[in-house]
Amino acid sequence: MQYEMVAGFETHVELATNTKIFCSCTTQFGGDPNTHCCPICIGLPGVLPKLNRAVVQYAIRAGLATNCHIANISKMDRKNYCYPDLPKAYQISQYDKPLCENGYVQLSNGRRIRLNRIHIEEDAGKLIHKRGDTYIDYNRGGVPLIEIVSEPDIRSVEEAKEYVEKLQQIMRYIGVSDCRMQEGSMRCDVNVSVRPVGSDKLGTRTEIKNMNSITFIGKAMEYEFNRQVELIESGGEVEQQTLRYNDSENTTSPMRGKEDANDYRYFRDPDLVTISVSDEEIDELRKTIPELHFEKVERYVGQFSLSEKDASNIAKYRRIAEFFEQASDGVKNPKTVANFIIGQIFRRLETEDDKESFDIKTTAAQLRELVKLIDDGKIRNNLAKSTLEQMLDTGKPASEFISESDMAGLDESALEGLCRKAVESNPKAVEDFKKGKQKAVKSLVGFVMKESRGKADAAAAEQLIISIIG
Amino acid sequence: MVTREDVINIARLSKLYIAEEELDEMTKAMGDIIKFADTINVASEQGVEEFDNINNLKNAFREDVVVPSYERDEILKNANDIDEGHFLVRKRV
Ligand SMILES: [Zn+2]
Question: On chain B, which terminus has fewer CB atoms closer than 10 Å, C or N?
């Protein structure tokens, strides 16, 4: 029998606010253990949590960017469980009235992965297990999170990966999180079940907890899919359970459950008042949502005739997309700008992080100036390329490296002179060309380009050389 | 109904010591407390909006501005056990 995978995601994303969700401690990553703490975030009795306005705004923006309905009224609830990473023995979260509901993320194959909800909550502290003892650092405790809960709409590992990447891109684009999976600012719980192809019933699902790498998510889902299919094929039944993925062995294994894990005894947090957001406020926040990655790709392809791949490579990183748009503003051919970015500039940005932070010396205006020189026929591509290298090294504008005489271009007689010189000094190439070797003319053009330091018009030179030889 | 076993269990979870001779009294007292709390169930919910909370407030927000955190020594003052700047929970033996 053929089986299909049915998967859903619960994705935790740490918000990039300055302060924690209920106190004014910094959210900065790292820091010596327990130095970003106060009585509120270590859960001392008698303290009063106060909700960070920015957390509500960030979460609403995340909801708007994923097509959610934003609730005008919502509230905070206590989720009770006893574990040392949670000093109050409850987590403040949202239960039955989340901020955002009923959204979706659209995949490139056109399928929509429906989002059940996005709610806000506090992160737990970090536990470090050494020799059986547990060391607790509450710096992360109280850092604001959104939890994005999808419906079980994902049908393959490829869709799962694209879904996570897309969420990552969206959240980065709107600036609500850096979504660094390595540092734990984005973490996924994946629930997986299988069913015979064509069936519309859901099988018993297992949940793989706390995945922090897209590669591992793919491998774990693959493993879990095969395990469940084999189990069913051999007459067994899938048991609903929580699993941990062991990346060194590429297997999943059951996790020991937290005490009384299924009964969280949710109730409204009496210390936190109702959250009320008007339609006007929602509209204001909607205006802050920038054009998103996939929308930019569409526009770059349609409007600037970039290839889908180039468009996607540029649009993927918000800063680079903005740089591209500013540098292309008013130039004849934005493709030239795109080529400079993907070629020479990307060569200097080796890692994803480099591209994300996009720390280069040249400004968009400087690149635009350079491209305009090409547009106006003042310099040729070769000279522009070498100039850009110098600009990127120094942060200085093109005018520092290109003299007036460089920009003058070559007049016809100068070009003709150089072409004659090329023919005279390369008898071998001329012979080859006469024997029918078309390519030989290229080395003659190369000679002209070199002599003119890139100023000559290569196409015109080729025409001229052929007529001189002929 | 609160049983002696409930009280023993709760005492254990709360790390409280209760002597054997205190148990009966404690069991009755806890039963009374829960009965008292249950009176809330007879209160009418009519005319009460779903989101009303006791002081009828909404949107008590804090601005997103960092205030220096506490000194770590202060933070760790209540800890039973400390090591390398961490709260420490020792292996149960
Ligand atoms: Zn704090």
Answer: C
User: CA-to-CA distance for A139 and A130, rounded, in angstroms?
Assistant: 19
Task: Report pLDDT for A121.
Answer: 98
Q: Name the pTM for this structure.
A: 0.79
Which backbone phi and psi does A71 adopt, to 5 degrees?
Answer: -75, 130
Residue from A324, A265, A321, A257 nearest A295 by CA: A321
Residue A351 exposed, middle or buried by CB count within 10 Å (0-12, 13-18, 19+)? exposed
C-alpha–C-alpha distance, residues A206 and A193, integer Å: 7
Q: Over the stretch A204-250, which tens digit does the pLDDT of each residue have? A: 999 999 999 999 999 999 999 999 999 999 999 999 889 989 888 88
CB contact under 8 A, A18 and B59: no
Give the model confidence (pLDDT) of A333-366 as tens digits.
899 999 999 999 999 998 888 998 899 999 999 9
The answer to whether the CB atoms of B58 and A19 lie below 8 A apart is: no
Mutate to test the interface with B, among A273, A277, A282 (most CBs of B within 10 A): A273
Domains parsed from chain B with CATH numbers: 1-42 (1.10.20.60)
Contact predicate A179/A186, CB 8 Å: yes
Cα A406–Cα A409–Cα A415 angle in degrees, nearest 5: 120
Answer whether A19 sits within 8 Å of B65, measured CB to CB: yes
Domain boundaries, chain A: 3-285, 291-408, 412-469
Q: Which tokens in the block code for residue A464?
A: 């001229």
User: Is ipTM over 0.95?
Assistant: no
Strand pairing report for A133-137 and A126-130: antiparallel
Strands across the sheet with A3-14, in order?
A: A69-70, A100-106, A112-122, A144-150, A3-14, A186-196, A206-211, A242-246, A251-254
A128: contact with B, CB 8 A cutoff? yes
Which residues partner with A243 through β-bridges? A208, A254
Minimal Cβ distance to B65: which of A24, A38, A138: A24
The amino acid occupying position A172 is: R
CATH topology of domain A412-469: Arc Repressor Mutant, subunit A (1.10.10)
**Would you say residue A258 has pLDDT above 60?**
no
Looking at every residue in chain A, the average pLDDT score rounds to 91
